[in-house]
Amino acid sequence: MKKYFAFLVIIVALASCGKDFLNNEPHEFTDAVFWKTADQAESALAGVYSPLQDEEALGGEDWCGMEAFSDNGYMNDNYSDYISMTEFKATQNIEGDLDRWAYVSYYKTIKRAGDVLANVPGMTMDEAQKQRILGEANFLQAFSYFQLAARYGGLPLYDAKNSASSLVRATEEKTWEVIEADLVAATGQLAWDHKEGRPGLGAAYGLLAKVYAYRGKWNEAKTAAEMVINSNRHALHTDYAAVFTMENENISEILWGLGARVGEYPITPVLMLPNNVWNGTHPEPLGEGWRLVSATNAFYNAYQAGDTRKAATVAKRGVDVVTYNGSTDVLQAPNNQSDVVCIKYMSPYAEEYSSWAAGLNVPALRYSDILLIDAEAIMMLNGGGPASRTTGVAAAAVPFNLVRTRAGLPAIASPNFNNLMYERKMELAFEGGDRHFDLVRWGLAAEVYNSLPAEGTYKPVRTFNPAIHKLMPYPQREIDNSGGSITQNPGYSGAR
After folding, report:
1. Phi, psi (5° rounding) for residue 172?
2. Which residues of 259-278 are buried (b: 16+ CB within 10 A; e: fewer)?
3. How far apart are CA 251 and CA 345, in angstroms?
4. Which CATH architecture has domain 28-258?
5. pLDDT, tens only, 234-285
6. Residue ranges per structural domain of the chain
7. pTM of the model as a whole
């Protein structure tokens, strides 16, 4: 039986889900009677994790749904406002479910982490325990800011001593500076050894490397990535498909995974599962899969011959064999709009469908991602990159080929940026939307998206305008709740 990191339900935590994040009432954790003991500090830290498990955040629909912005997937369910954003047609963000509640959940984590960071330093407790608590809080705050900054740019920056800080967006540059500073602090507070569900130094340096890449700070990205690589604490698992199983959810390849328990959030596996796998050819509990996000044929057809990640990631109706609920046969999935589904998280249901919440951790940050960030940084520092996509860079071969050869593909002596684009697309597909944010930060989203033909009615021809669509429209309800002190992004309705 797997061990679980217990996320406590804290009565004294942030105001209930019914209250808006922008409520000016002080956080309950600021009560002077609370911040006294080490156990209280641990309880407060546990409360930082819990919003990430929400269905609309890292624990479910939001993390899965971000893939619909890319060319890899689409939204199968009828979230019309969200789909409008993925098709770059939205003039404002009025999504009342996935996107807006993801924003609220991430900000709950930001607020709770900020309260820990404001109060724990002054507490009397074991110093090593204190540093670990602060390191986790810094990492989780940075992770949550990162998720939102990649979408919206500048954000309100929470200050536990100034409630008005939540009512004004900082600049995009300032927001990224805060994310970077949080992670730098975490690298001085965390250790390589850590418990399940908690970040260690590998996660802190790994996310820091990714943040540096988003900021174009390539020397720093290389240095941070190689702190992870040279630590000898992390390695790729030999079998790509096996990474996404409950048996291997705590292997060293997972720099940080959000803990899950059977019957509780997170619920990633059921969100990707078709709601009729066999179409009556084998026994199954019909309608149990939510089929929220599915894959495109363009993605299915983009795999190079011999890439073992294909069979681990996608299956095509009437073509590919899958195992579900004790049966192994050719996939049917008649209710899917495309004939391709994502099967990356299907393993918990191979023998039987036991629960809509299967208990599989969310692989939020993997070692392969950091290897490819290292390769990217080396390319950018040696004449490669989006503007020189065919320029080979031999110095990037070692981290690049660790990922590539694990997938059963031949090593490339001098990989170029086109090679890197392929590896990041296939390696990280359906893991929180990296493909879209990669194309945006590389300045290649318009070229890639605007050249794709329509695929059915579920993935129409799209027009990506970098001047507008490099950022998503800011959640309109948060603008309204602020009385207009939070402003809309350029190019969208109501922008100033």
Report:
1. -60, -40
2. bbbeeebbbbbbbbbbbbbb
3. 16
4. Alpha Horseshoe (1.25)
5. 999 999 999 999 999 999 999 999 999 899 889 999 999 999 999 999 999 9
6. 28-258, 268-356, 367-449
7. 0.93
